[in-house]
């Protein structure tokens, strides 16, 4: 097992994808920025200068302090503080943690749902294919943000207020995933329609393999390239969707602020001179989305054999 893993790793480092990565300085920087975001976000409880969730450490007298290089800045707060005296740098780290968690889990769920439905539609065909694809076509006629708002509004009307606040992250992940499964399903279906007529799939049918085993063992590995591209680009889209919802006040609760919540809080004080409360979280969100989108665009080109 170890030798197979080592051999696969060696072939990856000798392959075209890693060669393209090594010769793309912009992509290397984008990858480093993305990894840094994930590390700072998920290690925030240990590396953040302050714990923004510990109300015992907050002091309202520390509110609205500018960045350290501005007049009146405090060395304890590198990027200043918000209206509640929370360190902006620490809130960005904890906020990125929430945004990346929601984005990653929603993309993972959308990918699983889209792969399953897309492979069933492409491999089985017939009425099953028609029903799944018509549902996908109907959903594509609505903006993703509208679908998420509808699901969130429905859960708010059904669940008690306290229960909804406890399940806000779960509802947000499910709603974003349900809004984005179509791209995976349509791509997998198209690739499955091509792969299922090839000789290796027909040979698997002849020896009596179950259709589910054929799809998982033989068809799925050959459609993973487009799936990885959509997942990478979908991560940036999901993070941006979550930030938009939180900015509108229908995303995560204020007790678990994301980057969108921080931008929303800071927007109330933008024109009063406390620009850092919203500018720094907004810049952090923009850099994250840009880096992930650059990785997705590069991955799409690197995995396209016509461009090699």
Automatic annotation (TrEMBL):
Chain ranges passing through the membrane: 26-48, 102-125, 131-151, 163-182, 227-253, 273-296
Any single GO BP term: transmembrane transport
Record domain ABC transmembrane type-1: where: 96-296
Main location: membrane
Pfam families associated with the record: BPD_transp_1, OppC_N
InterPro entries on file: BP-dependent_transpt_permease (IPR050366), MetI-like (IPR000515), MetI-like_sf (IPR035906), OppC_N (IPR025966)
Name of the protein described by the UniProt record: ABC transporter permease
């Amino acid at each position: 097992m170890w030798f197979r893993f080592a051999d696969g790793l060696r072939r990856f480092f000798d392959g075209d994808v890693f060669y393209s990565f090594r010769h793309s300085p912009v992509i290397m920087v984008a990858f480093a920025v993305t990894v840094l975001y994930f590390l700072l976000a998920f290690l925030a409880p240990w590396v953040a200068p302050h714990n923004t969730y510990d109300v015992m450490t907050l002091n309202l007298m520390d509110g609205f302090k500018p960045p350290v290089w501005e007049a009146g800045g405090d060395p304890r707060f590198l990027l200043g503080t918000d209206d509640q005296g929370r360190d902006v740098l620490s809130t960005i780290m904890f906020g990125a943690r929430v945004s990346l968690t929601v984005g990653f889990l929603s993309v993972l769920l959308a990918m699983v749902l889209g792969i399953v439905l897309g492979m069933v539609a492409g491999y089985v065909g017939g009425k099953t294919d028609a029903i799944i694809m018509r549902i996908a076509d109907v959903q594509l006629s609505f903006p993703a943000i509208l679908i998420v708002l509808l699901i969130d509004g429905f859960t708010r009307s059904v669940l008690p207020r306290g229960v909804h606040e406890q399940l806000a992250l779960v509802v947000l992940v499910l709603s974003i995933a349900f809004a984005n499964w179509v791209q995976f399903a349509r791509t997998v279906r198209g690739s499955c329609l091509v792969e299922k007529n090839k000789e290796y799939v027909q040979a698997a049918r002849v020896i009596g393999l179950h259709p589910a085993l054929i799809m998982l063992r033989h068809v799925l590995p050959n459609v993973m390239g487009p799936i990885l591209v959509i997942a990478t680009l979908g991560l940036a889209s999901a993070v941006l969707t979550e930030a938009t919802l939180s900015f509108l006040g229908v995303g995560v609760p204020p007790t678990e602020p994301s980057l969108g919540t921080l931008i929303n809080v800071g927007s109330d004080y933008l024109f009063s001179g406390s620009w850092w409360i919203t500018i720094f979280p907004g810049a952090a969100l923009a850099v994250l989305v840009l880096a992930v989108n650059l990785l997705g665009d590069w991955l799409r080109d690197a995995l396209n054999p016509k461009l090699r």
